[in-house]
Batch of 2 targets.
Target 1
Amino acid sequence: DIQMTQSPSSLSASVRDRVTITCRASQSIRRYLNWYQQKPGKAPKLLIYGTSSLQGGVPSRFAGSGSGTDFTLTISSLQPEDFATYFCQQSDSSPYTFGQGTKLEIK
Amino acid sequence: QVQLQESGPGLVKTSQTLSLTCTVSGGSINSGNHYWSWIRQPAGKGLEWIGRVHSSGTTNYNPSLKSRLTISVDTSKNQFSLNLRSVTATDTALYYCARDTLNILTGYYTDTWGQGTLVAVSS
């Protein structure tokens, strides 16, 4: 199985901050990397697929980059509604494993 | 707009079979570029990919669960199902059904999720 490791596990930031979350795969997953946002009591929501493609309706302050084993999710200017937990997932090969999550909290 | 709804018992006894159904509405399960998935999340923890099924019946399973797992599809009812045998307390989790979409350039991604159903395993 491909292991996905996110860092940091938690992060405190302020509104209008720029934040970056990293996801590392245990082997190359080319660009088959998706990002999800989950708020308490809710199902995850797709933000970005294929490393950098923004899902419809997702604000442009979210951006993804990377390839191979190293990927990043960047939020350019944090808004109050962005405080949530973020998960990466590889879709290169089954089982389609997730990272352990990054909890983004208000400073 | 496609919506997914999980249904099934909220409590299952240890060593018994956990059975859940996901009903797809607002669209057909018979779509060539979609797989239909199960994902679970223990309380306060991360997401675990369980497996998925295509309308053709093709399945992919997580090897860690494969010996106990069956995922099937009923296209006539627009439903797909999860059966997990010989459950233990470690199978207690929030279970989500979801839709995976294939983009030729970017691969699969899970773009639609059910609300989730909590299943507890207890003796």
Target 2
Amino acid sequence: ELKVEQNPLFLSMQEGKNYTIYCNYSTTSDRLYWYRQDPGKSLESLFVLLSNGAVKQEGRLMASLDTKARLSTLHITAAVHDLSATYFCAVGDNFGNEKLTFGTGTRLTIIP
Amino acid sequence: DGGITQSPKYLFRKEGQNVTLSCEQNLNHDAMYWYRQDPGQGLRLIYYSQIVNDFQKGDIAEGYSVSREKKESFPLTVTSAQKNPTAFYLCASRGGETPQYFGPGTRLTVL
């Protein structure tokens, strides 16, 4: 059974600081996703990581994937208030049906 | 504009009632998914469908049922057998190699 763990679960950081969210998963997978959720809203896709060593960047967010370590990171650079949200990683199974197993999420609060 | 619509946005159910949540997409996506989200938690897969007239159970299918008679539509019925149905329900679709695209959600509350 695929398990996905994120840490930290809660993160409060000051504007302008850097931080990293970690996503560990238990079995081999060839695809990992990062999503953002604002309070009471749906999920928005941020990144798709499909291969070992993949790195994607969008603005102040950068995601990477190490399939050997079964680890993905989401790095936040010089945080701004607009990045306050809950971030989820999700790992796909290897059977082509795109069943996703989600982590429990990291609730990020950026303090001015 | 292409997208996913879910209705209603809010739904209240009395104990013992079945209710049906609507999910419609005009993205021409083959695959559709239903997830449940409880407060402070991640999403858990209820059912998914990769083609019309075919669907599979996810991790928490007990107490739920679905149908996929049209490509555009994937309704979810929450039956009276689901003992703790209060949650946020999200429908998603996927076409080709794109990530799953989520609808706005339905918040179900049992009175």
